[in-house]
Amino acid sequence: MRSIGVLLATLTSAVVLTAAAADPIDVPSAQVLKVAIKSSTPRDTWARQDAAAFVLGNVVRTQAGERAKTKAFTSAESARLADLDGFQSAAEKSYLASLPPACNGRDCEERYAYYRCVSAYELSPAFYRAIFDRFFTPDAQKVLAPLLANAGTVWQGAIAMAPNSHPFESFPAPSRECAGGVSPAPATTAGGTTGTAPVPAQSAQATPSDDSIRRARAAGVDVTVLGLTLGEPVRLPACPAQSIFNILGPGIETTCIWNEDPLGVAEDITKLFGVTPNADGTRNASMYDLVIAMPPAKCPDWVAQCQFRVQLSGGRLSAVFILTTGLEVQNDVGAALTQKYKKPTQTSYKRWVNDKTGDTVMSLNMSWNLPGLNVTLEGYPGGTREAFGSVTIEADAITRQRAQEEKAKQDQKQKL
User: Fold this and answer.
1) 348-360 residue pLDDT tens
2) What's the CA dihedral at 113, 115, 117, 119 to 10 degrees?
């Protein structure tokens, strides 16, 4: 497995701040983008404009360096960011206004197709490369490249590509949604061992989590977790059939949906953290849906058993729960999360005492209350599982949902 340092690569935002350039390079305005970016369909045009403004906003923030952490932008930077952010909002509003009457005031597949298209562009190194070559001269690229090469995994991939390897004028749509079509549901093969794994049936309707994640994205919060993106469907293959004797062996070569859960990660989570079904057999809305397995070559050491659990809302990722390898890695995980989400909202330590031996351990607890997103690290939850800690990353709507469900449980217990 990889060392804890891999966390910085697997959890890194597409907008990691670096040292500011001495002479900031001018970033194109929204008006330049509006004139330059056209495509074959209105949806793709607006999505490209939306994503391009996002990418260029990255460049502004990256050049600002440490000042961006406290939003201490110059007047020119603030004006350009407001210009680009406003352009993103205008592109989204223009698309929503074009939807058929059946989508007016409610959610429909055409609405979500737009967001999936924008996300495809925003996570595409080739698109970043196309933007870089189209809007920045070779001299400007020489100044920006060292900064952007340290500005997250998407930029790293873009800078590593050859100049002009992805012509802006002929850049293809990265998904069928961008071209105006709707991607069909992926098929599964017999036995569910290849193809895309089946996920719990949920309607593609708006949920409170959608608003949470939109607010997080608008505020520049990183919504990626271990290769997945909050607010997007989980489209992963089903894991090959495994047993307790060959789990995470050669049969798992890519991240996949683990249906059988032979090591009982799902059971561990439900027992330790109270996400069990109700006594009457009903399922709380905030329960985790899927177990995701990672191959050893891509699995950070801090992820217990190379598995984690995710929750879906309306068929889209809304929360991630990760068991960590515990006390020995809690400080490193906390540091990596701080790099990803910046200064925590709260940091505390809890002292645990073994009743029999008198041994004590100190558990690190950290939390980040971000726009639309809540993140928590618990180094050790107590009990007998000293090896485990946990990281929870979830839409704030899910946090509220869990609190409401817990209150309802407690109220029921207090009834005479």
Assistant:
1) 888 887 767 777 8
2) -150
